[in-house]
Amino acid sequence: MEEKISCDGGHEFKLLLSCPSGLSPSQVSVVFDEAYDRIPHSDSSLEHSISEIWDARVQQSSSLYNGTKFRYGGYNFDVGNDPKQQPHVSLQLGLTDYRTFVGTNLSPIWERYLVPSEDDCIQCQHTSSPLGNGAVVETSDKKILVLQRSNKVGEFPGYFVFPGGHPEPQEVGIISHEGFQELNQCRTINNKVSQEMFDSIVREVVEEIGAPADSLSSPIFIGISRRVMNVRPTAFFFIKCNLQSDEIQQLYSSAQDGFESTQLYAVSMSDLENMASKMPGCHRGGFALYKLMVQGSEIGASGVCPGTHPYYPEA
After folding, report:
1. What is the greatest pairwise CA distance in the chain?
2. With contact defined as beta carbons under 8 Å apart, do 232 and 285 qualify?
3. Verdict on whether the full-model pTM lies above 0.85
């Protein structure tokens, strides 16, 4: 069973997958296939509303543009039969775009796109559901970095978030599914997309916080959370930074994407608990994944090896 935290509106989240001991790039692969693309809804009026909503948004903001995104279509988890074998997650990704995201997930009538099902992927088969990413970044003085979103951004202005964004298909030369049908081409593009999962979160941290890439550890994948409102999925990673929080504060003032946020906070775990009440659900889920990772490492330190597995606690 997925974890569902009941709180107010956009604060609710589900943990779709938790990997508390963290997965390295070699333990995460991707299957990129049109089988994981969105299925159009049978209601033609719903489908037509996607264009109407997008056109209205573009009229309100001329800076909006449509770009391709990876669509979350589920995962396979393999713990293996050999105790020495490392666990492995295979993410299933299709292709979508920002226009369809605005017209389905962010639509005022987004719930009409959902299918009654206990299976998350069936439930969300008609939504765009681009896979976002977020990073829990820990400084050398053991602080966690949190941004306060600008009041000018489209989603959750003024809320606290971890740095993040999206892996980008264009970074690996993907515009459509065409040209990747042959087996060797599929393997090559799957490897590139898998690498983009990890490369993109480093890019986001560098651009949003200003920390140089060489100050950051290789990201480890800790799971996927989903905001209940708008069924918005986000993959989360844990990254260590070898700089102290006061050094990061100085770098933040010249961050490339600093316009997306108004302030950077370097906080303790207890401070983060207090800030979580003003986080969007998907980022509250990221905090929950981080806490599971911390709890797992504490259990490991006491002599019990924390397992890496999908997290399905009782409701």
Report:
1. 59
2. no
3. yes
